[in-house]
TrEMBL record:
EC number: 2.3.1.1
Primary enzyme class: transferase
InterPro entries assigned to the protein according to its UniProt record, in alphabetical order: Acyl_CoA_acyltransferase (IPR016181), GNAT_dom (IPR000182), NH2A_AcTrfase (IPR010167)
GO BP annotation list: L-arginine biosynthetic process
Protein name: N-acetylglutamate synthase
UniProt domain N-acetyltransferase: residue ranges: 2-154
Length: 154
């Protein structure tokens, strides 16, 4: 049985191990242990008993904008709606926190997010410039094919 739980600092090693292959492929941005620790409250984990099988983060940029980051499900556990449930959890968290307008995602998998109600937008219209501060850390910088989508909360 899969359950969704908030992350603890003791989960970080397993989180880093789970995401390693996607980081190497350049699908998910590398985050240092310290960066994950600093943002530990952002993360929701999917666990089967005590085994980590997936996670994502809801990162708050401003009163109006949050972002879904680092969405990953263990390859052996894909296709069981775990990814969907984690994104829905993050969207609910954004509502509860009172994020006023949008939840953004930058992804190579627009179809996955469109099924959950996200709509594609032109990357140039993303308002918060601090998002791009992350891009220089990416192995694909500056030629990036990621698609930007937003989920409208209001
Ligand atoms: C993307 C990912 C998290 C999906 O997790 P998952 O638990 O297998 O997905 P779900 O079972 O919740 O799928 C929900 C729906 O999305 C669809 N979907 C899943 N993966 C998809 C993909 N790669 N492309 C298009 N649609 C996809 C499913 O078919 C399902 O549709 P349905 O409701 O019509 O049946 C997982 O494939 C993964 O970890 N990929 C590698 C990392 C990655 O690309 N992360 C995204 C970075 S933003």
């Amino acid at each position: 049985m899969i359950k969704l739980v908030k992350a603890k600092l003791s989960d970080i090693s397993a989180m880093q191990a789970l995401v390693l292959s996607e980081v190497k492929e350049g699908v998910i941005l590398n985050r240092s242990e310290d960066e994950v620790a600093t943002n530990i409250r952002s993360y929701v984990l999917a666990k089967e008993d005590e085994k980590l099988v997936g996670y994502t983060a809801l990162h708050i940029h401003s009163k109006r904008l949050a972002e879904i980051r680092s969405l990953i499900v263990d390859e052996k556990y894909r296709g069981q709606k775990i990814g969907q449930k984690m994104v829905e959890f993050a969207l609910e968290e954004a509502r509860e926190l009172g994020v006023e307008e949008d939840v953004l995602v930058l992804t190579y998998l627009p179809a996955f997010f469109e099924k959950l109600g996200f709509k594609e937008i032109n990357k140039e219209v993303i308002p918060e410039h601090k998002i791009w501060a992350d891009c220089i850390k990416c192995i694909h910088f500056p030629v990036c094919n990621e698609i930007a989508l937003v989920y409208k909360l209001s």
